[in-house]
Specification:
36% helix, 17 helices, Rossmann fold, 480 residues, alpha/beta, 4-stranded antiparallel β-sheet, 6-stranded mixed β-sheet, 2 domains
């Protein structure tokens, strides 16, 4: 059992976890974890993908109840014994006393309803106020989290918000009932550094204004360093190191913590860079004067304006920018998922119209790009079938080869996306792209939602495939 630490008097702890273990079948996701959090304090659970940190966060709200998971130990949150609480007691806990902000706001927000209506619904469930009062409350909390023109924007739907604004809306929903505890599960993972800083500043300000406690779940030690009082480093479901943030991240005693810190990419770190052969090599993809507009008339938005680039065989071109800079729109035009308003894309010297199988895309979120109802093998086989292959034996052999080529196992063919980690799902996405025998791959934020170790593994895999197959890469990212 890990040692118990507290930021305050144990008698007044907001959260008290003792010897927590969570098992899913034969897998023990959390193993004997203990920690405490005082009111108004902030603790970060830090670890790589699969370390068990999100499982712990879910256990605090009793989200494992009824899932078949075996949960042992004691979990006390805001005076509620989560393990023994009834369904009604858990409903009162969630939202009113403790609230959670998830990593992906798109999967947490209903695409059919206005943001303000969704926040108002949460508020009404816990307070029984009138619809009008709940709507007014929704506007106030949206203003509180920095949404401009909150009254008007409260009528917008999730797809009309940027990634940073959607995350602010989720935080507003969590704050609607003024909870004592906010659990933030990777709240800034897929955001660019500027928006990430804004969200972290917002969480800090809200803590100061409301006195709420914060449990931050993250794989990013930099995020933890800027946001919390204490850090608990997790690996394989266990606590590796726990203490004040300055001590744990400034002078770590555990080798694993030092490894995590060492894996953080640094712009000023010395590295061997390839020199571009100016003007050498065959141009495989050329974009000239690309422009893309959305909307009509006075409401026209220009997302990309006059961008040109040349990509040569075996070359990598990086497209870097903040959220809303147009980099993803550019990538989609290069692949053919969007047609430019003006300008031209040429593939191997010929104008490219529509989608060409030789130009493929690896998406940021493999969860949304893989069908949850189909095995990963069937998804990887799609490009083969699209090219006319009908022999199931040959299809299975080729898919097995591709899965093994990206570091997975052939036996994974019959598994489903939810059975894989984030890094493994991204490998599945890369295998599916390779099934089309591409000459160009556009990678749209392929590692932004992954921990630093998995990021390095996926980037290394792409580099290895490029060297072996001569593929040209366009790497879209917000992270220099």
């Amino acid at each position: 059992m890990s040692p118990v630490r507290t930021t305050g008097d144990a008698r007044t702890n907001l959260v008290e976890v003792t010897d927590l273990s969570v098992e899913f079948g034969e897998v023990r996701a959390v193993d004997g974890l203990s920690f405490r959090l005082a009111p108004g304090a902030a603790l970060a659970l830090v670890g790589e993908s699969g370390s068990g940190k999100s499982t712990v966060a879910s256990a605090l709200l009793g989200l494992h109840h009824g899932t078949g998971a075996r949960v042992r130990g004691s979990v006390l949150v805001a005076g509620t014994d989560v393990q023994r609480a009834s369904g009604e007691e858990l409903r009162r806990l969630r939202g009113a006393k403790a609230a959670m902000v998830f990593q992906d706001p798109l999967s947490s927000l209903d695409p059919y309803y206005a943001i303000g209506d969704q926040i108002a619904e949460v508020y009404r469930v816990h307070t029984r106020v009138s619809r009008r009062a709940a709507r007014a409350r929704a506007v106030r909390v949206l203003e509180r989290v920095g949404i401009p023109d909150a009254a008007r924007r409260s009528r917008s739907r999730p797809h009309e918000f940027s990634g940073g604004m959607r995350q602010r809306a989720l935080i507003a929903m969590a704050l609607a009932c003024e909870p004592d505890l906010l659990i933030a599960d990777e709240p800034t993972t897929a955001l660019d550094v500027t928006v990430q800083a804004q969200i972290l500043d917002l969480l800090h300000t809200l803590r100061e204004e409301t006195g709420m406690g914060l449990l931050l779940v993250t794989h990013d030690v930099g995020v933890a360093a800027e946001s919390v009082d204490e850090v608990l480093v997790m690996r394989d479901g266990r606590a590796v190191e726990h203490g004040p943030v300055t001590a744990v991240l400034g002078a770590p005693s555990a080798a694993y913590t030092r490894e995590l810190l060492g894996a953080v990419p640094r712009v000023d770190a010395p590295r061997e860079a390839r020199k571009a052969d100016s003007g050498q090599g065959e141009a495989v993809l050329e974009a000239t004067g690309l422009r893309r507009e959305f909307g009509r008339g006075r409401r026209t938005l220009t997302a990309v304006d006059g961008v040109s680039l040349t990509l040569r065989r075996g070359e990598t071109v990086g497209v870097v920018g903040e959220s809303g800079s147009g980099k993803t729109t550019l990538g989609r035009m290069l692949v053919g998922l969007l047609e430019p308003t003006a300008g031209e894309v040429r593939f191997e010297g010929r104008p490219r119209h529509g989608v060409d199988p030789a130009v493929q895309m690896v998406f940021q979120d493999p969860v949304s790009s893989l069908n949850p109802r189909r095995s990963v093998g069937e998804s990887v086989a799609d490009p083969l079938r699209a090219r006319g292959e009908r022999d199931e034996g040959r299809i299975r052999r080729r898919v097995t080869e591709l899965l093994e080529r990206v570091g997975l196992e052939g036996a994974h063919y019959d598994r489903y996306p939810h059975e894989f980690s984030g890094g493994q799902r991204q490998r599945v996405g890369i295998a599916r792209v390779l099934a089309a025998d591409p000459k160009v791959i556009v990678c749209d934020e392929p590692v932004s939602a992954l921990d630093v170790t998995t990021q390095a593994q996926v980037v290394a895999l792409l580099g290895e495939l490029q060297r072996e197959l001569g593929i040209a890469l366009v790497f879209v990212a917000h992270d220099l």
